[in-house]
Amino acid sequence: MKVNDQHVVYLRAQMAGDAETMEYVTGQMTVPHAMDGLVPLVDEAFVLVVRKWFGPYYTHGQVIRLVAQVRGLLSEQHTLIDPVVAESEIRRALGESVPLFSDARVRTPAQMALSDFLVRDLELDEAEVWGLLRDARQAVDRHAVGTDGK
Amino acid sequence: MAVTDEQVATLRAQLEGNLEEHRRLLAQLDPATARTGYAALIAAAFSLATDRRFAADGDMAQVVEYVASVRSTTESMAEIDPRVAERLLLAVYTDEQINDIDVRVRYETQILLLAALVADAQLDKTDLDTFLAQARSLADKWLA
Q1: Which of these, A40, A63, A101, A119, is most buried using a 10 Å CB contact count?
Q2: Best of B70, B72, B86 to disrupt the A interface by mutation (most A CBs within 10 Å)?
Q3: What is the pTM (predicted TM-score) of this model?
Q4: What ipTM, to 2 d.p.?
Q5: Is the dihedral of CA B61, B90, A98, A33 positive or negative?
Q6: Domain count, chain B
């Protein structure tokens, strides 16, 4: 799945809570599966921001408490993040061999909510957020090339 | 059928942190009566401890935070399914339904959470006696 500029703009808007831009981009992408590229982009951005936030050393207790903290902030929509999926995704992002939850409809909302929190908590400025998204896009492209065997 | 002195002593040993004694007493319990009497005692104690801890102002965020604090203590506690733990706590004082949770998972999770709740409450011997008497009384009502 190819990531395009609109996917990146959408994810940036989502992180900034900019509903208007999100709606605008969604309205532009009317072709079937036009948003498919967002899933791997969210995936890679999540890995990058999780690694940045935790650094090289972490405990499972820290992972548990982070997920609980984010869920606590979303207590009105606490079902948005499945804690088991969220913890598993963080541990996978940190390089552990943890089973993948195959359903992206469960994974992606958890990744997005956690990424939003982590970006804010890291106090990344605008340039750093765009840099993160650029790196995530490049990672998706690299993996796509690897998958194609080129 | 009612809760027995042996079942109360078994739970007391666990809640006092005397795990060796707890295991010894647990092994001596009659398996058939333990399935009803001891399980009812655990459920009643869990219900009382949860009610004391959360009923006044225990919103979802507090339950989430509490379960995370319990799970983050050790790797084995981290194995507790947070969704199950949160629902069991909420079921005590909200209309949360837990009939879909496997009975064994429910029982094991309640035991672990109960130990944490009682440890947090820092009960002295008299308080623990009172607490166990109340739990026994409630369990007996359920079993009657």
Answers
A1: A63
A2: B72
A3: 0.86
A4: 0.84
A5: negative
A6: 1
